[in-house]
Recover the amino acids of this structure.
C-alpha cells in the first residue's frame, strides 16, 4: 500500500519528465547501397526521432558519404544513438557537432507564394529583408530561395502565410565544424 505522493513503482524510478536536447550528428559512411536504410532503421527500430536528414557523397575518391542527422532526445538517448551509430560497420566516424565545438548549420528552402497587388509588393519587400532571392516569378506567384539557420527560415515561412503561402520545400540541415579540423 502506498501513501499519497509515493510512487506506485516497485523500482522507485524517477518519474519526473526528462528534458530533451537537439543534437546535430555528422556521420561519415561508406557510399554503398543500403547504408542509409540501415542508419534510418536504427532510428525507427528504437523509436528515435529524426528532425532533419541530409546525405550526399562528399569524398568521391574514397567513396564516402556524409549523413547529417538532427535529432532530439534525452542526454541518455543521444548517447545511445551515437554509440549505436559508431558500432555500425559502414560507419567511419560519428561527430556530435552540438558538443564538439563551434559548428556552422545552414538549410535551404524554396517557398512558393501566390499574390497580386499590395500582397505581392509586401512579399517582395519582406523577401528582400530576409535576403531571399526570387528564383521564379509569374504574374500571380513567386518562388523564393532562402538559406540560413532553421529558425530564420521558420520565421520567413510564418510571415509569408498571410501573404499567400502555397508550399514549402526544405533541404534539411547541412552542417560542418568550424576551424581547420576535419569533421
Amino acid at each position: 500500500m502506498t501513501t499519497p505522493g509515493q510512487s506506485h513503482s516497485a523500482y522507485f524510478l524517477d518519474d519526473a519528465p526528462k528534458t530533451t536536447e537537439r543534437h546535430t550528428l555528422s556521420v561519415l559512411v561508406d557510399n554503398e547501397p543500403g547504408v542509409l536504410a540501415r542508419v534510418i532503421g536504427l532510428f525507427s527500430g528504437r523509436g528515435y526521432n529524426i528532425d532533419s536528414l541530409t546525405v550526399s557523397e562528399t569524398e568521391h575518391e574514397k567513396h564516402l558519404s556524409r549523413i547529417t542527422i538532427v535529432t532530439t532526445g534525452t542526454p541518455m538517448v543521444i548517447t545511445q544513438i551515437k554509440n549505436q551509430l559508431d558500432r555500425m560497420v559502414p560507419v567511419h566516424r560519428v561527430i556530435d557537432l552540438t558538443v564538439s565545438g563551434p559548428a556552422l548549420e545552414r538549410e535551404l528552402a524554396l517557398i512558393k507564394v501566390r499574390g497580386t497587388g499590395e500582397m505581392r509588393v509586401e512579399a517582395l519587400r519582406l523577401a528582400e529583408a530576409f535576403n531571399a532571392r526570387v528564383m521564379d516569378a509569374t504574374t500571380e506567384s513567386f518562388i523564393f530561395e532562402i538559406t540560413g539557420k532553421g529558425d530564420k527560415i521558420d520565421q520567413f515561412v510564418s510571415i509569408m502565410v498571410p501573404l499567400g503561402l502555397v508550399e514549402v520545400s526544405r533541404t534539411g540541415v547541412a552542417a560542418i565544424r568550424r576551424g581547420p579540423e576535419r569533421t
In short: The chain has a mean pLDDT of 91. Strands lie at 21-30, 49-59, 64-73, 91-96, 103-114, 133-137, 141-148, 165-170, 174-177.
